[in-house]
Amino acid sequence: MKNEFPEVKVMGERAILIEFKPEINEKLLDKILFHKKVIEEHYIKLSVEVINTYSSLLIYYVSDIEDVYSEVLAVKGLLDTPNIPKKVNSLLYQIPVFYDPGFGLDLDFLAHQKKCSVAEIIRLHTQPVYTVYFIGFLPGFLYLGGLDKKLQISRKEQPRMEVEKGAVGIGENQTGIYPKSSPGGWQIIGNSPVDFFDRNSTPPCEIVAGDKVNFYSISRKEFDEISEEINLGNFQLKREKYEG
């Protein structure tokens, strides 16, 4: 990747947007997360929030920016860093999923569209190690890259008015998990009993951008057992340091 300088522009009275070349790859993610850390450390005494997407960073200030010109110059200075590490430290999380037509409302549809068995859909979905690129559109919604090309499929033409909490879906070349019930247009293939966002925890979302995720298939009995452990506060996600 060429060391192209990103575009920096003001967004309203309380935000500055940093836009990189619109790509989706891990090299760019490493670069974005490095700059995010540098910016957060620079503004550690100020109340700012730095949010990343696939190819951008948004710096949100809690109060109006007093001197926009000087602030933009300061941000550009923070971005002018020659030594960017190749990889960020990350954790690999093992996520249980119950793949079943009762929960995976589009599982049979996807198998029909791809001309393969449900078992093959599950194998293809559980095989990769996915990368967490960013978190949104709901708090705790993980945008995961690394989906097998054989599983890539367009979103639904008519989104559902309600998708259940824990629903595991596919949208284009991404997969993700709905952390709460909400409208949604992704193709749903299963459900995970795990809570991905808890406003009473610190941090409220344990998994962060740059981390890795691997799904594993569970039975209905295991799904119910994990759900009970979660209700009792006894469940912990399996995780380990990722060596990639």
Structure notes:
The protein has helices spanning 26-42, 68-79, 107-114, 118-126, 220-232; strands at 7-10, 15-19, 48-52, 56-61, 91-97, 130-135, 142-145, 160-163, 167-171, 174-177, 182-184, 187-191, 212-217, 238-241. The chain is an alpha+beta fold. The protein has two domains: 7-79, Gyrase A, domain 2, CATH 3.30.1360; 91-241, Cyclophilin (Beta Barrel). The strands form three sheets. Strands 12-9-10-7-6-13-5-14 form an eight-stranded mixed beta sheet. A four-stranded antiparallel beta sheet has the order 1-2-4-3, with helices on one face. A two-stranded antiparallel sheet has the order 8-11. The mean pLDDT is 91.
Name given to the CATH architecture of the largest domain? Beta Barrel
Helix count equals 5
Number of strands: 14
Q: Can you tell me the CATH superfamily of the largest domain? A: Cyclophilin-like
CATH fold label of the largest domain: Cyclophilin
Quick tags:
single chain; 244 residues; Gyrase A, domain 2; Cyclophilin; four-stranded antiparallel β-sheet
Summarize the structure.
With 244 residues, this protein is α+β, with helices and mostly antiparallel strands. It has helices spanning 26-42, 68-79, 107-114, 118-126, 220-232, and strands at 7-10, 15-19, 48-52, 56-61, 91-97, 130-135, 142-145, 160-163, 167-171, 174-177, 182-184, 187-191, 212-217, 238-241.
